[in-house]
Amino acid sequence: MLAVAYIVYSNADSFASRAAAILRDDAGFSGAQDLKGLKRYRSGSVDMLELKDSPVYADWLDDIGTDMIIFLSRHSSAKGVVSFTAHAEGNWSDRNGLGGKPHSLAVAAPERMLSFLKAMKEVSGGIEVVYEATHHGPLLNTPSCFVELGPDAVITDRDRDDLIKKLEKGVYSMLYGNTPSYDKVAVGIGGMHYSARFTKYALEGKYAFSHIMPKYYVDEVSMIQQAIDKSTIRPDIAVIEWKSINSVSRNRILKALEELGIDYERV
Fold it and tell me: Where, if anywhere, are coiled coils annotated (predicted)?
């Protein structure tokens, strides 16, 4: 029987390994079996797969045959702000130093990411809950996303398992919860890597975001087509963080959206 969803993590990531162990115990995952030389666990229709290397290079995961892949990962932050985050994968430019392929986006899962963020907001206890912009690999046609907690270096050993238990609620919501309420599926354009404004509107029920293109890639206007196409649900609209983008770039974006028949909203 094929798994409806896979939870994937790397044993090279100590935080993700600990989170996976807690999930396995709490959700009653069975003992390890072999898949391509890797450990695979099962609970009902959900499998968990332990990679030996970073998941950002695991383009081969399309071959496992499933409806959804959720990557558990340690979150890194130069500012040291503890956050629960979610994001789609892909490279907006010709750079692919962290997996995937240049100018290529994976298939985003907007409803699943929104389920995670809404669940985390309910239990976060004041810890930041935020979308990250689309970045890094792997490049998959299977709908997927990363859900993260970190940075690990500033989380005490005493707090780590409590925070992982909260993360667990978000993963359960993605797998078993009701479809979250929202008005429109959207592509986000503009703003910084941490999309606080888009997150705010999503948590208010206005949008479920698929891909988010940060302001430093807005001149890659040809990628907007992929941002529309590479989503489990075709976006209804582009939401543009208006003041973060100069007028020349905005005009190019608006022209591209018009050619694609996609409306936009300013925020």
Answer: none
**Among 157, 140, 160, 133, residue whose Cα is nearest residue 149:** 160
pLDDT band at 76 (very low <50, low <70, confident <90, very high): confident
Degrees, nearest 5: CA angle 163-165-171: 110
Torsion of CA 108, 130, 9, 217, to 10 degrees: 50
Q: Please write the tens of the pLDDT for every residue from 161-170.
A: 899 999 999 9
Sign of the CA dihedral running 12, 158, 126, 153 = negative
Cβ contacts of 248 within 8 Å, gap of 6 or more: none
Backbone φ and ψ of 51, nearest 5°: -90, 160
Query: What CATH class is the domain 184-266?
Result: alpha beta
Separation between Cα atoms, residue 148 and residue 132, nearest integer Å: 10
Do the beta carbons of residue 72 and residue 16 sit within 8 Å? yes
Kindly list the domain boundaries of the chain, sorted by start residue.
5-176, 184-266
Q: Answer yes or no: are the C-beta atoms of 129 and 195 closer than 8 Å.
A: no
Cβ proximity of 121 and 128 under 8 Å? no
pTM: 0.96
Give the model's pLDDT for residue 159.
86
Read off the pLDDT of residues 215-267 as tens digits, 9 standing for 90 and up.
999 999 999 999 999 999 999 999 999 999 999 999 999 999 999 999 999 99
How far apart are the C-alpha atoms of 165 and 22, rounded to whole Å?
8
How far are the Cα atoms of 56, 99, 100, 112, 143 from residue 59, in angstroms, in the given order?
Answer: 8, 8, 7, 20, 12
Match 């389920």 to its residue by tokens: 115
CATH code of the domain made up of 5-176: 3.40.630.50
